[in-house]
Amino acid sequence: MDSGGEPQSTAFSLRTFGGLELLDERGQAIPFSAKALVILAYLISTGRRTATRTEVAELLWGRGAPSTAFTNLRRLVLRIRSRQTELDAHFLAFSSREVEIRPSLLKCDVSLLATAEPQGSFDELKTLVDRLRLVFLGETDLRNPLFGRWVAQQRERQSAALEHALRTMASLAKTAEQRAVVQQAALHVFLTDSNDQIARKFLLQAYDVQGEVDHLRRTFERRNEMLASWMKEKRQSPPVKIAARAATVEAINPAGLVEPPTACLPRLALLPPNNYSREPAAAMIVTSLLEDITIGFCVLSSVQVLAPYSALQISRKTEDQLAMLEHHGLTYVLETRLSGVDEELSLFSQLVFLPTSEIVWAERLSLDGARFAQNRRDISGRLAFSVASEIERHRITRSNFDRNPTAYHRYLLGRQFFDRLTLPNLHRARKEMKAVLQESANFAPALSSLARTYSEEWLLTARGEADLLRSAETYALQAIETSSDMADGYRELGVAKLLQGALDESVETLQLAETLSPHYADVIADHADALAHCSRLDTACQTIERAIELNPISPDSYLWTAAGACYGLGRFEAALGYIDRMADASLADRLAAASWAMLGHRDKAHVFVTRVRQTHPEFDVDNWLSIVPIKEKWHKDIYREGLKKAGF
């Protein structure tokens, strides 16, 4: 059998879960034939060293036209040999009859599942959970029945392996970490097959509601102690000195707390109401209220909540809404419908468990202030099984309503003006938030929203008015002082620091905000933006992708941040890809021009240069770079190079 030579390096791995990629020793994807990767995955997952050429040809192209399949295979073999020679790594060898794999030259994430008899350990169970939280060959479809049947068989076999490991290890769990692994495994099996009684039994034990509430109460108490320490230090130091608090940020998730992997968590969407009443203003208020509750859910580590922007887009779909919900991996959906008029105005809500289409809970809620607050308590109780950790955070959100319903109502009215960022809307929002503070001086959400109006005005006017950023910082610090365990104040302080050029302080403050609300997509996106300005571009790309995952119908600001980070890394085509996904791509015309120029397409770059000059005829590259906060010189230089090449 032709080996093509011996490799000089074995530092390659094959990723099969969540996609199909060949990775180098740094974990970076490297080009390799997709069908060659399928051959590797086929041999490794089935625990075989060889397969016949006929078998491989049928797997890749089906049985419809054997002569065509063999011709295609011969061409594929030539490409594989050539590429393996370039890499000096010969994973596959070929004879006239067989294809052989060199398994010692390649690590693979499916290897554990190819063993005939699992060893039976909690490490193995955890590895299985980590693997199966992503789909085997999730992005690969060769569009032939043989391949489809093989992939389906492998996925069924993998699920059976996890269920077997769960049955073996569940009763042996002694420590908190071991019980957490069992909980994660049971949740995965249950969401795959909701009729699995073994998984249901272990899941009920693992998510014992009272125990979960007690655990969360202790978690919040410990977190509040850490935040109290943060506040004490702030009072003893200048307000802008945040760098020394990095240790506190790490301490918020104590070593004793074990959190499930993000991809294993149930996902929840709260859809804005369809308005069947004659009160459009009421529909707007309830929509804002649902957004506020959504942000409250974002503090949890036990549930993911779809960001309000994506929930709003899904709610507007009619024909393919279910497909969109399934596409985004949602587990629960709270559907709402507004009806009635005047004093009889009510909100009908039903919570749907999507894997089985089961209506978990449904009720018609009066919009009378006191009763509505009480019904929100009922919602948290109904969701206790999968979102028990919502209780404490929901209490914080609800308490604002209970203490002063008038202030909360005005706050919701003010929030609507952030939907479209114009100077008049910012001024209207500021007026409403100041009215809220007249009703309730310590209303933290209004304080953080006020801070946002000043930082957004600084961006829109682009006049560099320092007073606006000082106001943003002042209100953000007041929000933190008023409610130190809510993420919004830290978020606004981090944004103000970013615009002031205090990049390290901005990153550290936004890291704290993200720690407080680990699934709050807008906070994560702002954190990614700060990381990009701090020239930590790889981390920025990873962070903004997490925000996009939580808010998949992403606002333009997310995509702009992703495009900028990719540009700084020299990934110009990826940058243009993100820009193409923007609803208003003109916001990134300068970046598009620079990207095309760096790719050698001066003609395409010129189109964007012309468009920028029509809007900003005085634009000057050096002046712009002197204003934009970018930490590292090399990072500014790549912007300067691209913009100059484009013709600015």
Automatic annotation (TrEMBL):
GO biological process assignments? regulation of DNA-templated transcription
**Native source organism of the sequence:** Ensifer adhaerens (Sinorhizobium morelense)
The protein, known as: Uncharacterized protein
Q: Which domain of life is it from?
A: Bacteria
The molecular function terms in GO held by this entry are: DNA binding
User: Coiled-coil annotation: which residues?
Assistant: none
